[in-house]
Amino acid sequence: MLQLTAESLSYFPHPKPFKNPHYSRTETGQIASKRNKSLKQILVLERERVDRILEGKKMAVLEEAGEVEEEEGMGEEEKEERRRKRQKREEELMRVFEGVVSCAFTLLSLNEDGV
Question: By the 8 A CB rule, do 38 and 32 touch?
Fold first, then answer.
């Protein structure tokens, strides 16, 4: 009777012609560690990107309005009044920006639904 062992049936020591030694995923235009992203992940990333853009625009508007300045040489009452005005203006800007973002995501969802 012929005795078969795991070593005699193994293909491990044989060359593997089906493996291309020159193949890499980066050659096909993809990053090796990149995975497919779900729609939810894409929307979260897009929301974060929009938030960063809006925060930059908000800071630009505040700098242009002269709100980001040194407060040296000012009295405590003037500083407090300036802080209140700045906070009120920031809240108004955030409401406007949130409305813009809300509209943008509504348009995106309508576009995805095929409307």
Answer: no
How far, rounded to the nearest angstrom, does the alpha carbon of residue 43 sit from its chain's CA centroid? 9
Is the CB of residue 32 less than 8 Å from the CB of residue 25? yes
CB 59 within 8 A of CB 68: yes
Give the whole-angstrom CA distance, residue 108 versus residue 45.
14
Q: How confident is the model at residue 82 (pLDDT cuts 50, 70, 90)?
A: confident
Instruction: With 0.85 as the threshold, say if the pTM is over it.
Output: no
HSE-CB of 12 using CA atoms within 13 angstroms? 5
**Cα–Cα distance for residue pair 39/41, rounded to 1 Å:** 5
Nearest to 105 by CA among 32, 34, 50, 62: 50
